[in-house]
Structures are given as structure tokens and as C-alpha cells.
Design a protein that fits this description.
The protein is α+β, with helices and mostly antiparallel strands and about 190 residues long. Helices cover about 30% and strands about 20% of the residues. A hairpin with a 5-residue loop joins strand 6 and strand 7. Bound molecules: flavin mononucleotide (FMN). Flavin mononucleotide binds near residues 14, 67, 123 and 124.
Length: about 190
């Protein structure tokens, strides 16, 4: 895949073939991409928790918030849940500010997942203290993001933002996810 194809195919997926397992080695390969990604001051303060066992996944899932715009959808049902997670943590012993390091790391992970025929979703809506307790994360590691991963079980259609300017994604009767993206000319500023 070209970079353009990788970026285009790397959508936020929230429903998966839960039975399709993801090996620990695959998660390690994805974190290796994050490891090689840019880091402010090259401080490299991020740490990662990996989960690809159903029992561990069950400890993580209840503390995540899914698709805020889909008000009638509480998140993926059993059978369509992620097969794996990567929790991105900030090590406060190494830095107090994580800037956009975790965003860059998350994108590297998702692009790597796309290359492998997988998909996922960055999740910032996290019940952090509950997740910390459930997974025994020590206090010096700040919870920044969770990346949900799996084999995608949904179709995402990228569309132009309509004349009303509404950027909210939505689902049609077939369950397809419609994703408005702003036009290139709208986001490049004349000067
Ligand atoms: C920093 C960040 C936090 C996000 N948090 C959530 C979240 O908590 N729950 C969720 O379902 N999606 C979350 N998303 C996914 C966005 O909703 C998604 O990126 C957006 O709808 C655009 O879709 P796309 O990623 O396919 O381009 C997050 C994305 C980013 C970049």
C-alpha cells in the first residue's frame, strides 16, 4: 500500500470479528513503530500495556467510551468487540508533559495495523481511575490513550462535509459508517 492508501484505509473502526485473534508479537511489532516515532526533546516518555487475551480484554473494555455522536449505540456488543488493546501511558518519571507524542504514537500503531489487515480506534474517552484499578497501572504512569484493535467488521464511507457544515459521523440502515471530511481547499489557509 502507498502512504496515501494506508492513511485512507486507516479509519476508526469500532466493530470487529472478535474471534480473530491478534498475537502478542503483532502488538509488539506495532509498539516498535511507536518506539521509532518522533518524540518532543526525544524524551521518549511513553510506555505501553498490551492485551490480547479475552480475560484481559474484558478488564479493559468496560472503561471505554465509544462513538460519542452515535447516541443510540452503547458500543460494540459481545462478538464484535476488539481482540486486542494497546494502552498508551506517560511515564511521569521521565516527563511531566507528553505533548502530542501519544497522538503520533497512536497513528503509527494504526497505520501498522492497517498494513497488517487489521484496524482500530483511538480512544480518549476513558474512565481512567477504574481502568487503572482494573489493570494495576502504577500511579507514576499516566493513562493517555487506549488503542482498540481487531479485524474490522464495518464499512466506513468517507464523504464531503455537506452544505450545513455538519462534521458528525452517522450510520445508515445497513450499518455503514458515514464519515464527513472537510474539503482540502477549506483547510488550506490563503496568505
Ligand atoms: C485524540 C483522539 C481521541 C479519540 N477518542 C475517541 C473515543 O474516545 N471514542 C471513539 O469512539 N472514538 C474516538 N476517536 C476517534 C474519532 O472519533 C475519529 O478519529 C473521527 O471520528 C474521524 O474518523 P477517522 O479516524 O476514521 O478519520 C478519537 C480520535 C482521536 C484522534
Amino acid at each position: 500500500m502507498t502512504v496515501k492508501e494506508l492513511v485512507r484505509n486507516s479509519r476508526s473502526y469500532r466493530r470487529f470479528y472478535q474471534d480473530t485473534q491478534i498475537e502478542l508479537d503483532t502488538l509488539r511489532e506495532l509498539v516498535n513503530l511507536a518506539r521509532l516515532s518522533p518524540s518532543a526533546r526525544n524524551a521518549q516518555p511513553l510506555k505501553y500495556i498490551l492485551s490480547c487475551e479475552p480475560k484481559k480484554n474484558d478488564l479493559i473494555f468496560p472503561h471505554l467510551g465509544w462513538a460519542g455522536y452515535l447516541k443510540d449505540w452503547p458500543g460494540p456488543t459481545e462478538g464484535e468487540r476488539p481482540s486486542a488493546y494497546i494502552i498508551i501511558l506517560g511515564d511521569t518519571r521521565l516527563s511531566q508533559h507528553f505533548g502530542c507524542d501519544h497522538g503520533i504514537a497512536a497513528q503509527s500503531i494504526l497505520l501498522g495495523a492497517t498494513e497488517k489487515g487489521l484496524g482500530g480506534c483511538i480512544i480518549a474517552s476513558i474512565q481512567k481511575e477504574q481502568l487503572r484499578r482494573a489493570t494495576n497501572i502504577p500511579p507514576e504512569l499516566e493513562i493517555l490513550l487506549v488503542i482498540a484493535l481487531g479485524k474490522p467488521k464495518e464499512t466506513v464511507l468517507i464523504e464531503p462535509v455537506g452544505p450545513d457544515g455538519d462534521i458528525k459521523y452517522w450510520r445508515d440502515e445497513q450499518g455503514r459508517h458515514h464519515l464527513p471530511k472537510r474539503d482540502l481547499d477549506e483547510i488550506i489557509v490563503d496568505w
